[in-house]
Automatic annotation (TrEMBL):
GO biological process, one term: riboflavin biosynthetic process
Organism of provenance: Oceanisphaera arctica
Pfam families: Hydrolase (PF00702)
Protein name per Swiss-Prot or TrEMBL: HAD family hydrolase
Taxonomic superkingdom: Bacteria
């Protein structure tokens, strides 16, 4: 644990999800693999629904509609729909099929493994603070074992631009009725979480559980932790 700035009184704690409360790398890899396999089974003879073409479609869509870069769900749906239209489906059919595949993807996306340490931290902190989520991702948290800990979940796209933009931090302050300075955000990402929170006026904890150095930081957090459980020593 390393202190960079003095913490002031906290009323609300906001958590990043992916790679903060659980390891997201194997989860997203498995979900992506499931999706590509499902698309291949739907059109086994085609390469238009393969990884390379879908990536090319995504690049084009983001050039045409850069605002979709702030909404991973809407972007993925557009990519799937466009790929299916390239297969010859009309717009209505392509949209319906894209939504079906996306629902399956989200089901796989929700198959997270939450460490026991995460449960301990959330259970203990939930007795003293209001716990919330600010995420750039699309985890269907309501279908996971994390759901009971949080009463507010803000997602990029529906609730504003992606972190590090200040939108969701400001919205959380309004939703909870506290000042930005009374919000403590914790996350693993030095830009989206640390810089995003600090530049928005919140306090920030950097979960540095992969051994990065201070030279990687774009701005200083209030505290850096090596393990999530250290929050129980801090608060």
């Amino acid at each position: 644990m390393r202190f960079y700035k003095r913490l002031t009184p906290v009323k609300v704690i906001s958590f990043d999800l992916d790679d903060t409360l659980y390891d997201n790398v194997p989860v997203i890899a498995a979900a992506e693999a499931w999706l590509l396999d499902a698309l291949k089974q739907h059109h086994p003879e085609s390469t238009l629904l393969g990884k390379e073409n879908l990536a090319a479609i995504k690049r084009r869509i983001l050039l045409e509609q850069p605002e979709l870069s702030h909404d991973v769900s809407a972007c993925r749906l557009r990519v799937l729909s466009e790929g299916l239209r390239q297969q010859g489906l009309d717009e209505a059919r392509a949209t319906a099929m894209a939504e079906k595949f996306y629902r399956g993807f989200l089901e796989q996306r929700g198959k997270i493994t939450v460490p026991e340490a995460t449960h301990r931290v959330l259970s203990a902190l939930g007795e003293k603070y209001r716990l919330t989520v600010i995420t750039n991702g699309n985890l269907p948290i309501e279908s996971t074992e994390l759901a009971p800990y949080f009463d507010i979940v803000l997602r990029a796209g529906t609730d504003g631009r992606m972190k590090p933009a200040p939108d969701m931090f400001h919205r959380l302050a309004v939703r909870t009725g506290v000042s930005l300075a009374e919000i403590l955000h914790i996350g693993d990402h030095i830009n989206t979480d640390v810089a995003g929170a600090v530049h928005s006026g919140c306090q920030a904890i950097w979960l540095n559980d992969n051994g990065r150095t201070e030279s990687d930081l774009r701005c200083l957090p209030h505290v850096a932790l090596e393990r999530l459980e250290q929050m129980l020593e801090l608060l």
